[in-house]
Amino acid sequence: MAASGRTDNLPAPLTTFVGRRQELGEIGGRLDQARLVTLTGAGGAGKSRLALEVAARRTERHQDGVWLVELAGLADPVLVAHTVAGVLDVPEQGGRPQTAVLTERLRNCDMLIFLDSCNPSGHRARRRPGARPRLLGLRG
């Protein structure tokens, strides 16, 4: 999807992932069944690292890639769609809401979008009718 031809933007892990085999399997199974999976828990519990590991293990499963979208620090929920579009190289179309542009562009895509910190200021990931990507969101 990205113009650069890359199929992911996941950071290289700084440490070896150890354990949590059951959680990896459960999250992967849920992603196979649902388009939106949300991980919740206390800050510092390892949600982001776990989700990054799940995402890294799924890069070959999604034809259009696996994409990390960092939402921490966004103060305005309107910026979520613009941030996702920026990561995916989806340009704005004057006069059209960015959510509509994303829905149209992603309708037939096979990708995993990992929304990290998807509610720091009250915004949440929502499945848009017609959008096909799978979403892995974190709430802390």
The chain-level mean pLDDT equals 84
- The sequence of SSEs as H and E is HEHEHHEE
Runs in which pLDDT lies below 50 for 5 or more consecutive residues are 120-129
- Going across the major beta sheet, what is the strand order? 1-4-3-2
Quick rundown:
This protein is an alpha/beta fold. Helix content is 30%, strand content 15%. It is globular.
Please give a structural write-up.
30% of the residues lie in helices and 15% in strands. The chain has helices at residues 21-33, 47-57, 79-87, 98-106, and strands at 36-40, 66-70, 112-116, 134-139. The two termini are 29 Å apart. Mean pLDDT is 84; it is low at 120-129.
Keywords:
140 residues; alpha/beta; 30% helix
Question: How is this fold's topology laid out?
Answer:
Elements: H1 21-33, E1 36-40, H2 47-57, E2 66-70, H3 79-87, H4 98-106, E3 112-116, E4 134-139
Parallel strand pairs: 1-4, 2-3, 3-4
